[in-house]
Every structure is written in C-alpha cells, then in structure tokens.
Amino acid sequence: MFYVIYNILSLFLLIPVCIYHLYRSVSRGRPAAFRERFGHISSGELARISNRPVIWLHAVSVGEAIAARSLVKALYDRYPGHCIVMSTTTETGRGVAGRFPEPDLCIYFPFDFLPAVRRALDAIRPQVVIIMETEIWPNFTREAARRGIPVILANGRISDRSFNRYLRFTWFFRHPLQLFSSLCMQTETDRERICAIGAPPARALVGGNLKYDIPVRQPTIAEKNDLRVRYFISAGLTILTAGSTHPGEEAHILATYRELLNITDRLFLVLVPRHPERAGEISKMLERRGLIHRRRSALGADNRMFRGGNVLLVDTIGELMDLYALSDLVFVGGSLVETGGHNLLEPASVGVPSIFGPHMTNFREIASLVLRYEAGLQVDGAAGLTDACRGLIDNSDELRRLGKNGLRMIRENGGATERHMEVIGRYL
Question: Does the annotation mark 249 as catalytic?
C-alpha cells in the first residue's frame, strides 16, 4: 500500500519537480537534461557499456562526487572487466564527475518516477548500485530489489539537523531502507541513527569516512610555479584562497582582505563562490569596493599578470583543488553563515592550512580532527577571520607547520575505501 500511495503522489509532484529543474537550468545557464532524468539514454552512450557488467555509482552533487573519488578509482583498478556508470543529480556534480577518468559513462540520475526508474535500469542493467551518503529513493530502491540488483549505501551519514526530520518520517523511510543490501555508515552514531529510522541493524555497519581517503598531493615548488603561471599570478605574492563561499560571506572576506592589504601589498585573493552563477553579483561587489579583478573564464583573453591587491574571481567548476594547491592559506566557506561548512580535508591534502568559521555542523567530525591535529584554525566570526589571517600571512614557519600537520592527518586516518570495497566485493 505504501508504494501505491507514493506513486500516486509522485504523479502530482512530477510537474512542480520539472518546473524546479527547468528554473535551475535556465537560471544557471545549463541544460535541463530531461531526457536523461526520465531514463532515456542515447544508444551512442549505451554502446560504451555494452557487453560488460556494470557498476552504477550515484553521487548527488559536488561534495558526494569528490568523496567518491577514491572509491571510483578502487573499483576501476580492482574490477577492470566492469564498466563504471556514474550518475549525479546536480549540474555541478555532473561537471566534477565528468572530469574523472575512470567512469565509462556519466549521466543524470532519473527522477523517482516509476517509468523513468524502470527505463534507466533497463538501459544500464547494473550488477550492483552504490549510492553515496544518504540518498533514499523508494521507487528506485524497490525496482532494483525486484530485479535482484544489490543496492549499497556508501559513506552514509545523518547530520544532527536532519536526524529529527528523518525520525518524524520513519513511516516513509523504513520501507526503502529495508531493501538496501548493505549500509556503510561513516560513524557508529550514523549507524545507530540509520537503524533508528528503519534500516535493518544486521545490514548496517561502520565503514568510515571516504573523504579521509582523499589522495595526498604535496605540490613541489616547480608545480606551484606552473600553477601561478596558469592563473597569471605574479611570483612572490602570498595567496589567500576563499573556497566554496556562500551569500553573506564574501562581504566579510573582502573586508578582511582590505584590512590585510594595509599590512602588506604582497597579498593576493582567489575567490571561489560555491555556485559559479553568482559571479556577476560578486563582481559588482568587487567593483563597489574598488578591487581590481578578473574572472577565471576571461584569463585566456587577457594575459596580464595579476598583482598584489588584485582578485581572481573563479566562475568555473572543477579547479578548486588546483587553486588550493597553489595557495598559502585557505578559508573554507559555508562556515561563517549557517550552511554547515565544507570539506576541510581538501586543503589539508595538499599541505595547506585552513581557517573556518563556527558553523561546521555538516563536517563536525572533520573539523574536530583538524583542530586536534592542529592543521587549521576555527574562528568565531568575521572579526576572528581577520585576526587569524593577520597572524598567519607573515608567519611562513607556522603556515608550514599547520600544512605538514594536515598531510599527517590525512595519512593517519585513511582506510575507509578498503572497508567499503570489502562490502562491495560480496556482490561482485
């Protein structure tokens, strides 16, 4: 009865869902890809995965795609006779996944509308489906189970903020959760929470956090110099990168930058908004403050070198790790406003210390680890951001110490990929 009611409701919800996706695509200048979202995949794309068993991995957006990186590589290396299909829900997630060399095919995940789900499963015919973090879609899970396709939840987590919402809807979630073959949760707390919502305890286990298995890459001086040339940044500048920023944060970052320029004119800011379509709005903000800047997308047409006090405004996707690698200090956004923060392991993996704000609810465990290893600094607000930056930009020894601590933290807390691979191997 649950699925009958759910499918009746999905018919009514389909129109507003389509309107929402159309609005997102138009406002962000990207294709809506309705054919793929309704399960239609072209014969040319399907030819890439014909005659071989398929592993289907779904990562909803950018964060999940980045977290899946080590797992995708491990699947590719261990199962060379299989095809890997990677799906995402968001356009930015698709952009990141499309840059991975291992997947044979990248698609949009189908709407959880029964004909779309059936069409997609008929086309791809996966041997196993791996869903990153906590994506629970009743029709997709049920249809996969009906066909005997194992569905594995990987890197599962349930944040403090979402747990109470899940508990109120256990009547909804317990049906699809009963159909997962295995649920690999990040921590024991996550495992207890998913069981409280309705997952079978015998199938839920602690697999660790795949984000800790991010590859360590300590760029050499020559590599950093090459990156500076690529981005037209003059030698000798101290580079501060503000990554994955959200509305309400840029004004504080620019105020900090202006104050720091009173101390040194050898400072350069790289500003990377979480959503590149906000570049126009941020560009106007920079103009009002009299800050000379260029967009990343315009660098090829203008080969002048940036100078101290200038700003590189990044309006592209997929370059954040390179920008972190060339930096001396990173501010990780989503943390001065109540967004929940972003991944502190990314700058740590390239040996660069990070500063972050008080709002890290989505990455509380990682934030605690960063502080314990002394790989970064947490500030209580905008004033603290200025003070923390001021204390570090002229202290190269402290920057190096924090950066080395970050590399050690990454190396000492890995292993989640192998634990996940042990579970996945039971079904391949």
Answer: no
Count Cβ atoms within 10 A of the Cβ of residue 428 and give its class: 0-12 exposed, 13-18 middle, 19 or more buried: middle
**DSSP assignment of 233-269:** BPTT-EEEEEEEE-TTTHHHHHHHHHHHHTT-S-EEE
* Euclidean distance between CA atoms 1 and 346, whole angstroms: 45
3-class SS of residue 312: strand
As a whole number, mean pLDDT of residues 90-108 equals 90
CATH class (in words) of the domain with range 221-412: alpha beta
Catalytic residue among 64, 143, 249, 346: 64
- Which residues fall within 8 angstroms of residue 306, CB to CB, at 6 or more apart? 231, 232, 233, 234, 237, 268, 294, 312
pLDDT of residue 201: 97
233-280: per-residue pLDDT in tens?
999 999 999 999 999 999 999 999 999 999 999 999 999 999 999 999
**Start-end ranges of CATH 3.40.50.11720 in the chain?**
28-213+414-425
- CATH 3.40.50.2000 in the chain, residue ranges: 221-412
Residue 252 carries which side chain, given as an amino acid letter?
H
**Helix, coil or strand: residue 123:** helix
The answer on pLDDT for 215 being more than 90 is no
Per-residue pLDDT tens for 317-369?
Answer: 889 999 999 999 999 999 999 999 999 999 999 999 999 999 998 888 899 99
Selecting from 3.40.50.11540, 3.10.129.10, 3.30.465.10, 3.40.50.11720, what CATH number does the domain 28-213+414-425 have? 3.40.50.11720
Q: Which residues lie below 8 Å from residue 109, measured CB to CB, with a gap of 6+? A: 37, 58, 60, 87, 88, 89
| Statement: residue 382 has pLDDT above 80 | yes
Amino acid at 418: E
Nearest to 366 by CA among 244, 249, 214: 214
Mean of per-residue pLDDT scores for the chain: 93
